[in-house]
Amino acid sequence: MKRRDFVTRIVVAGSALSMGIGCGRKIEGEQQGKTTTAAHATNPQRSITEPAREIPVIAETDVLVIGGGPAGVAAAIAASRAGAETYLVERYNHLGGLWTGGLVLPLLSTHAIDKQKRRKKVIHGLGGEMADRLFKLGMAINEVNPTIDPEAGKYVLDEMITESGVKMLYHAWGVNVIMDGNNIRGVIIESKSGRQAVLAKVVVDCTGDGDIFHWAGESYNTMNYHIGLVHRLGNIDRIDKTKPGYKEMPIGLPTPIPGVNWVNMHGLDNQNGIDMPTLSGLQVQYRKEIWDSVRKLKQTPGYEEVFLLDTASQLGVRMSRILEGEYRLTLEDTMTYRNFDDVIGISGAWTSMLYKGKRILSHERPLWQIPYRSLLPQKTENLLVAGRCFCFEETLVEDTRIIGTCLITGHGAGVGAAIAANDHVAVRDINRQKLRKILEDQKVWFG
Amino acid sequence: MSASNLFFSGFSQNKIKLYLAKPKYIRRLSTAIAVLLALPLPWGILTGFYIWFSPFVMLNSVFLLKSMVLFNVFGWVVLLISFFRNRWFCRYLCPVGLGCDTFSRWGRSKVSNVKKIPPLGKWLTLISLGAALTGIPLFIYLDPIAIFNGFFAAFSTSPSFTVFVSLSGLPLLFLSHLIFPGMWCGKLCPLGGLFDELTTLRKWIVKTFVKRKVIRTGSNFTRRTFLALGSGLVSGLFVPRLLPSKTARIFRPPASINEELFNILCVRCGNCIKACPTNILRHNLQTTNAVSWMTPELTFQDNGYCLEDCTRCGDVCPTGSISPFTVEAKKQLYIGSIEIGLEKCLLTDNKECDRCKTVCSYRAIEIVPSDTSLITKPVADLKKCVGCGACAAVCPSETIQMVFPG
Questions:
Q1: How large is the ipTM?
Q2: Among A66, A178, B129, B387, which has the minimal tally of Cβ within 10 Å of its Cβ?
Q3: A19:B59 CB<8 A
Q4: Distance between CA B381 and CA B387 in Å, rounded?
């Protein structure tokens, strides 16, 4: 080999080495600065100290349920049927919460896929009983995810509460907790009658916003989400499709009452559902927007006789506080048929999801178990949390905040509370076999 | 009794040592490992790991891209060892060599018909490396480990006849040895040629600098070497211009280099296709575009998407067609883009849905009032959208279409 040859080879190798070793190829990307958290919406500049005062105790009970939405009603009826003296406090003039007063009429999600890939009805127990009664009245349509009539719903829930012997107070808010160390002893309520106290062995927080666990000092996450306002339209059956100039307009979905449709509103995103100026502002804005949209609808050829029947009496706050409980239910749990030894019920799903890089459509979603642990706060004794604010991963929110799941968690919490009160044990320590047995007796479905 | 004694019971320890010392047993073991790693199994960053041992692929990639990655160390180590031990890799590790030798024996053909073939391997290497320096690694796809790995990639995703035929290089190579025994390793293999060249170089260094005695090796040889390298350098400058410049657009993995380079640098080893956890990387089968045949392509049609926390394809690519990248970098590595056609969107019909916004890891989609807050709509910030396809996958009404980035 000649020198010229050698030099050629050295040049080739040397240039490669010098060019190569110096510069790594890996793309690192910019390290992004941490996002600053926004300041809380209400930040009062001034404050006053309220003088101490005596508060009358208006009731002493085994189980106290705060909030009369789907979870609260289920909890109260279940506790009472399980043999505990039960007291229910509701802030509006009706039971059913967003289901009836919020005009979120469909009972989602009554069905899901079991391990053998069969589509199964999962909502039985009290939720199933409510639906059955409404079907008997002719006030529910659709077998899967039935849509109910709100007034019939209020009537049926009143009836069931009365039959089961639950004592109840409308028009009263739970405004604070009565604590003895880590033990919750009762709740202070406020109404036209002033400030009053209800003492209880077990309290079930069914406020939806987690007001009670907030006052009790539990830790939680706050999720800002869409807030909407549902309205109903009348005279849908009088729409004249033959009229010249007629075109399809969004008019919502049918309800059990002929000629009446309910119209959902997705509403603005990232809204704080526990900030009253926000809610008040949205209320006014939404009502005006609905009014304007119905007026526009009536000006469309064919729709002249359609009218605005009502807007919901409750603003549609979808999410607010989420408890940090004993166990956080995960997306993986719901996708893998995870079995819990303290299962309180099985719920369904209605949204498509991405799981491990694959899409699972709503009708392919598996049924999922809810554990009793997810209803238990970490610190406070004798408090249970049911409804949309129990402990779960945020990715699950679409399936945990809906009526069907609230009915299931409410039912489980009610029975758990009754067992704790009857057996004189803490809600954390109740016998899980007994819980399962009573729930089965009350026709909750466990697959 | 110790555990090792238990393990070796039935064998004498000497026998084991003898087993391990023999090159042919080591190569069998090596081949078994190579096959396992080349199979489409969840190996993570070890997917198709043997190709990192090939200095030929490593040098071509390094010469072309003028940069290195961590795993190139293995290539350099093999190169260094081969500098002192010619064909060390072939004898101890090469899985293709084992196959070729075995088929040669089965064929029982005479060796004489192969002897007439000139040893082309080292010329292929020299031309390829020269060309790589100026712009195109001409014969990189002839790397034996790339052919080996590529064959196993045919079993990974959506098995189709076309893919199988296109990646049947390895069985064809083996079968040809029934007629031409020893043809590949001795005459054609560019990797083997590279080792031979290294040895020539070492001998020359020893004779010139250590023994201080100039040995004439024949002027023809040097001229040929010069010619090979020179023609490589020239073809590197001109061949890329001959390739069709306008190629059909393909969704590439994140951190892929530009389209023209990708097609000529990719060895079709299928490492990325095997490593992709969601199986959205497939072999490109567009007949309109011959240069990109069998290169990896992202497909969104089966409702998979490019996971936000995955960097596998970049980690396993031996050539740098896909650069290694971090999860953080992925936020700026555009794969594609989206188009939201609102006609089918559930939100325009007052239905309840926010799936696209929820699944977006890059916060590219917001749901805003379309006219009043009575009806809302998803709106995408295309600067934040990298085109991972999550929203298009989850959308229950197929409102979102994947498009090429603007």
A1: 0.82
A2: A178
A3: no
A4: 11
